[in-house]
Write a structure and sequence with these properties.
Helix content: 40-55%
CATH topology of the largest domain: Rossmann fold
Number of strands: 21
Low-confidence stretches: none
Largest sheet: 6 strands, mixed
CATH superfamily of the largest domain: P-loop containing nucleotide triphosphate hydrolases
Number of domains: 3
Bound molecules: guanosine-5'-triphosphate, magnesium ion
Mean pLDDT: 86
Strand order of the largest sheet: 2-3-1-8-9-10
Shape: elongated
Structural class: alpha/beta
CATH class of the largest domain: Alpha Beta
CATH architecture of the largest domain: 3-Layer(aba) Sandwich
Distance between the termini: 99 Å
Length: 488
Amino acid sequence: MPNIYADMLTRMGGELYFGMVGPVRTGKSTLSSALARHLILPYITDPYEKERFIDELPQSAEGKTVMTTEPKFIPRQMIEVNLNQDQTLKAKVRFIDSVGFMSKDALGGMEDGKERMVHTPWSEEAVSFETAADIGTNKVIEQSGIVLLVTTDGTIADLPRQAYLEAEERAVNACRESGKPFLIVLNTSMPAGAAAKETKNYIEEHYGVEPVILDAKNLTLADIERVMTKALASFPILEIEIAMPDFICMLPKEHPLRQSVLTYLLTLKDGFDSIESLVDYTFEVPKDSGIVSCHVSNVNSCHGTATIQMKLEDAAYYAYLSEITGESIETKECFAAYLKEIIAERGAYRSAIASLTEAQEKGYSIMLPMQEEITLEEPALISSGGKYGVRMQAMAPSVHLIKVPVTTEIAPIVGTKEQAEDLIAYIKESDREGIWDTNIFGKTVGELVADGIRNKVSLIGDDGRAKLCESMEKIVNDTTNGLVCILI
Ligand SMILES: Nc1nc2c(ncn2[C@@H]2O[C@H](COP(=O)(O)OP(=O)(O)OP(=O)(O)O)[C@@H](O)[C@H]2O)c(=O)[nH]1
Ligand SMILES: [Mg+2]
């Protein structure tokens, strides 16, 4: 219980300020008094103060006649009370008992055939009962931190349930329009009775909220705890964290899964106006959206925060992995096997990149063989000057990268001298970058140069390449005696 108070205090900025609104003859004054007796009275130590406090509690009355004709603040001045025995939780607690909306068949709204005029703290002159209820309800809602809308099943005063319906709806609308957190208290002399059950169903169906059922005349600490818990849950949700698998961040923005997650989240945006509405929310995940389920966790009523845990289909993740790797990856095991393969290839790939860079920079580079590429011939017996030994020959492929500048030229014949000069001027006019796209007889300069290079390189046919390899082999293996002459 102290935790609920602590959380309430945080949400209500250090003051527990409750407004009582609703139709007349529902037990608002009874409930205000009962709550004040439980929450404030035990902590007033001065006997004089205590007596004055009791005297000032709102009056309730039997029958059909309206009792409260002006709003009442309990206590009159905000006083600080201890909310727990060890006095660690101090708070200002206050209730405002308001003039209710006139229920059908209630008496006291008229006096001598005219509407009864009542006083409110918000205007100097007396106003009609209806105006007092209207202005008063809105003012009470505005001033309080949380609103308790008190209604009944028709078992507490001499009015049937039917008599309250219209005024109850007005009160609910006033609370809704204010945007203030509110809860409906269903006051009944028989909390377990059929009338209470029926009224509870009506409230749930009609207003979409679950009321707290209690007997204000016999209020218990357990009732207060239920009211406080519900009150806390009716505060707005301030921050919702969406937790989903990290891989969603790896997906490109336009990926269908990211899009469907975003679209679904946008549909939820206005769905929760209170902590309770979030906790009770039934997530209906669209079919084929890639979202498996959603559920709420980490609800922090004190700070108004919660997390929506979103479970996504792993298939989308694997589909994306397959897309970027070009391999079929459908399970964790597949992905691990793929990684192993990549890591094994990485060594060779790195040395190839290093050799390529060296060839680019220095004009020549050699990729040394991996150990598994080296072949060892059978050991052979050798003799020299009467002594014997063993000869073993090893063979390994080494890859040689040679940077060879290729020259090519484009020399289109255009016709007359003027036409050739015009073409020179046209090419010169193009900027340096744009020159590649300059069109000469249907082909760009870039395409013509690429064609020229391709033609040149293709002149070294398979024979020429084989000879070059042979020559290189000789250079590499037999250069000990000096010059090697290559004839092409
Ligand atoms: N048995 C029972 N009677 C109740 C309960 N709450 C209120 N009553 C009775 O219902 C009658 C009206 O209660 P009030 O507290 O005066 O109601 P109210 O909403 O303040 O009425 P107005 O000030 O006239 O608008 C009184 O006779 C109360 O004793 C309850 O929970 N159980
Ligand atoms: Mg009253």
